[in-house]
Amino acid sequence: MSTTALITAWSAVSPYGIGGDALAEGLRSRSAPEPSAAPEEWLSDPSATARLVPGFDVREALGRVGTRGMDRMTGLAAVAVRELLGDDEGGLGTGLVLGTAAGGVQGFLEFTKASFEGERPIDVPPSKVPNMAMNRAASASAIRHHLKGPNSTVAAGRLSGLIALAHARRLLADGRAERVLCGSVEEYSAGRAQLEHRAYGTERVLGEGCAMVLLEPADAAPAQPLAEVLSVHHRIALTGDFADALSATVHAALRAAGVRPDEIWAVVPGGAPGSAGEQEQQVLQALFETSVRDRVQAPDLLGDTAAATGAFQLAALLAAPDGAGRTALITATDPDGPVGCAVVKLLAGAA
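The chain above was modelled as a monomer; its predicted structure follows.
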């Protein structure tokens, strides 16, 4: 089987709406979606705003069958898979790799709260149990859409999307799947808002959503694939020196891809909060001209999408016009230490 991983389709669920077209149109306009009015019970701060998927309700989006108790994160992932596959029924050779911060924060908190409030710690409503599993979104999406190949969940903070992409490439290269759906997801919830605002302040607008691509080997891909994943590298900035770690990672990824820095057409940063994001910008400014850094709109217009950021960065490249035949770079840092990047060659122009 070919070791070349090609992206043959993509879709997304974002604050611009459901579907890849909505995301592509929004990013090309370079206008942020309007902050949404979240349900009152979600707000950790009455003045806080968020960018939510407009009008998204799990049971309305997926129907009432099999969605009772399904959390928002799982619903977002399942809809993204549906939008990507369309009428395709998946099957034995189709795998799924999904990146997440650590599963649904809200699910963990609700389970823990119920355990404290019950007469005994084990007195937790059964509907609360599945949503505290880290692989809930990936497994439920695979079951719902008949994806019977390998099913993996990657939890690596803001690097989740890129590391999921690397794992999906390995599954194809090892012949463990005929094709792999790959992406990452993040939900907005009161629990997540509390944690993020305590860490970074309420001025940071949170976002949510899920982006997904379909990876296939070259010998099974359609005549006109969208992009080729040339390399994915990641490592840990053990001492907090994100700049040195990311610079080394970028150069390693470019060498592996056989690409020089001056051959990069566009770079899409992850935009992490704090020093991690600031040092990422320093590295990119040192390596690439302003035109390269500004050519493709980064997905920060969606708000802080945390674990879903990497998948949205990739989607932003695929949605960019005039990219056919060009090579681009995605970079990411996470305040907890991980850094990474992916080199992608765009093969078809965006519609």
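The chain has a mean pLDDT of 90.
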